[in-house]
Amino acid sequence: MSTYAIENSKSGRSKCKHCKETIAKGELRVQITTHNEAKDMNMTSSYKVACFNVPPKKFKGVSAEDFVDEHLEDNTEDQILANDTKRLEVIDAIGAKRPKKAKKEGDAGEGDTDNPEKLVKDKLEKIKAAAAKLEEEDEDEKEPPAKKVKGEGNEFTRQLKAFLIYGKISNGDLKDVLTWNGNTKTGTKSVLVMKCIDGYLNGRLHKQCSACEHGRLTLNLTDGFETVKCQGGYNEEAASRMPACGYEIAASKAPRFQPWYSQQPTEEQKKEMEVQAEGKTDAEIPQELIQAVKNLDWPATIATDASSMKAAAHMMAALLTEGRIKVDLPEGNAYRSVGMIINNNKESSAIEILEIIVKEFGFAETKVAAKKAKTEATASSCKCAANGPVVAAIKELSDLYFKENNANAGKSYNKAAKALGDLTLEITAGNAMGLSKGKTKGKFYVELSVSWRRNVRLTLAEVPGIGKGTAEKLKEFFTIGTISKLEEKRALLN
Fold first, then answer.
1. Are 46 and 137 contained in the same domain?
2. Long-range contact pairs involving 342-347 (C-beta distance under 8 Å, separation at least 24)
3. Residue pair 82/90 in contact by the 8 Å Cβ criterion
4. Range of the domain at 329
5. Domain ends where: 245, 278, 311?
6. Cβ proximity of 260 and 203 under 8 Å
7. Whole-angstrom distance, CA of residue 12 vs CA of residue 7
8. Which of 107, 119, 370, 391 has its CA at a distance of 20 to 30 angstroms from the CA of residue 287?
9. Percent of all residues in the chain with a pLDDT value above 90, rounded to a whole number
């Protein structure tokens, strides 16, 4: 059993196992620790980051990004993997082709290794062959090949059109294009070209996962970029790295931004991209609500009279919680929240107070829509869409545990959410307990109705990651419509 960690070299004595050069004190290195059971001791080997590649046999099909996020421990002094820029630099270094060793005389060489990028390469080879055939046909017609594939056409034709743009440019230029569009620039030439083709056809990927709102979306190398998946990400509020939530969607249906830039964007375009990526803009206050605030009998003596300030807080809170357009003020605590804002801004007008409140709390309708979109995104990644709401609830519980710095519980519920998302059977109050590995295992069944009006009883197998406590929460969700522990965490942390 081996573990992998990135760390600062503690001395200047260790040597890189690949290039045999000394690793300077403080320099980044990847340290592999393997336990030798026969001798009951740990064996270690060190690599310079640029000399380390993901072990192809042990991690077949695992990309550099997935390896860094899921298997590489961060033991550095300043926790560099928590910094997105430095993390991407590590991924780029690990994902790059390892420099060749100097061969000794008589050395037969290392031979071929498994290629986790084979699906992407094979896909590109088909496009490349079609492009070559098209160019041969055009030698007689003297017509530019791009003209032949002009228009939308089918998916392969569109890929071919994009290949004619990106297929023959250098790796450096491909990496520039990916950088301009916020994509990672790791991988072989085939991977870089296919990333550009995907972006040209579909647009720039959203950085934020639609389901968990913390993870980063990335093209899935293991299926040839057919899908996009969540790879987890760092949550600043929880001060913790959040694991991948299991969200996966077809690449053509993944959330995207337009346009895709084949030329370096201007400063104005860069600012627009930043606004899109943040996904946050100041909420525009409807004129109807502005007029309603203007019609309030707003006291002129708020700054000097406590009773006037209380009256203003009651008026504003009532309008924003009982009117047609509602602000998402804390339930049962709206008056106090509004009162605190008024007390801190005594010299401000009623409209200015309104703007501060809306900026801090947002509109209830907008938050409901956002929550609905998040649940729908979770459902779309579930193999059984009907399980979407309960999976979203378990995932939210995981996020809230991370938020209160309880990483163990957060990881447990995240693992449970991913396992439930992979179920093809619909979860119900009647079969929820049968999913656990507790004493109830095998005691619950799924009734399947068939066309000749007979019932088939199938025993539910236990689901990895689902214990008795989680199963009880699933049953509770389908019995009362929510999970009491989730409501408790929402009240404490939201």
1. no
2. 342/302, 342/309, 342/312, 342/313, 342/316, 343/309, 346/302, 346/303, 346/309, 347/303
3. no
4. 287-362
5. 278
6. yes
7. 13
8. 370
9. 24
Structural domains counted in the chain:
4
Based on the fold, state whether residues 295 and 268 are members of the same structural domain. no
- 108 within some domain: no
SS3 annotation, 27-89: CEEEEEEEEECCCCEEEEEEEEHHHCCCCCCCCCCCCHHHHHHHCEEECCCCCHHHCHHHHHH
Q: What is the pLDDT of residues 126-161, one digit of tens each?
A: 888 888 877 666 555 554 544 444 444 577 888 888
Q: Has residue 113 got a pLDDT over 50? A: no
Please report whether residue 109 resides in a domain.
Answer: no
Task: Please state, in angstroms and as integers, the Cα–Cα distance from residue 39 to each residue in 1, 2, 250, 460, following that order.
Answer: 14, 15, 48, 43
**The pTM is what?**
0.51
Q: Please provide the DSSP assignment of 185-202 as one string.
A: --S-HHHHHHHHHHHHHH
The residue written with tokens 């088909």 in the block is 126
Position 368 in a domain:
no
Neighbours of 212 (CB within 10 A): 27
If asked whether residues 216 and 135 sit together in one domain, one would say yes
* Domain presence at residue 13: yes
The CATH number given to whatever domain includes residue 476 is 1.10.150.110
- The phi, psi pair for 230, rounded to 5°, reads -85, 135
Rg of the chain's alpha carbons, rounded to an integer? Answer: 28
CA proximity to 217, closest of 189, 175, 186, 248? 248
Same domain, 407 and 314: no
pLDDT in tens, 348-386: 999 999 999 988 888 888 767 766 777 777 777 788 888
